Amino acid sequence: PVAEGEGGPAADLAGCSKEEMVRRLCREEAEKLAVLVQHGRLIQGMDRHLKAVNGRLQAANRKLRSLCCFLAEEQLKAKRLARHWQIVRHHAAQVLRYEVAGCLRKLAGLEGLLPPLNPLYHSGAPGSPGSPRESGRAPSATSGGPEDQGAAPSGDSAMGRRRTVPEPPW
């Protein structure tokens, strides 16, 4: 309720003429229309902004999809390559085992062809049985001497002294 001394909207309109009321009505309608136009412009601006943000997000989404596809393809390639190298490693290990076994068989065959070695012959003791000095003869190619073992002749053998031959590592 409006107090008596105060004039409310009805009191303002009561003292106005018809023309004044039409002017006030037009002014109020213009203000409402201006507010609606401003509101429409704000909505249009917000719509443009949201469309721009949406476009950027869609572009980022396309890039991420492309990157995901690329990474999935690379992962598949890496798995294939890892499997390929696993097969290569397995094959190489088989070949090496086969080659080593062949070499060991060949080595065993060659060791079987060597004459048994006399440990006293290698001691270098002048009076040991089987030494070249005691038998009075130089070792021949079939006698199993140091020359058979692949030892190089030394300068000491020319003076009549024999060097000891180390045992083979096997």
UniProtKB/TrEMBL annotation:
Cellular component terms (Gene Ontology): adherens junction; nucleus
Subcellular location: Cell junction, Adherens junction
Record carries keyword Transferase: no
GO biological process assignments: negative regulation of DNA-templated transcription
Pfam family, one: CCDC85
UniProtKB keywords: Cell junction, Coiled coil
Main location per the UniProt record: other
KW Translocase (keyword) present: no
Annotated spans, Disordered: 121-170
Family to which this protein belongs: Belongs to the CCDC85 family.
PANTHER family listed in its UniProt record: COILED-COIL DOMAIN-CONTAINING PROTEIN 85B (PTHR13546:SF12), RE60986P (PTHR13546)
Protein name from the UniProt record: Uncharacterized protein
Organism of origin: Naja naja (Indian cobra)
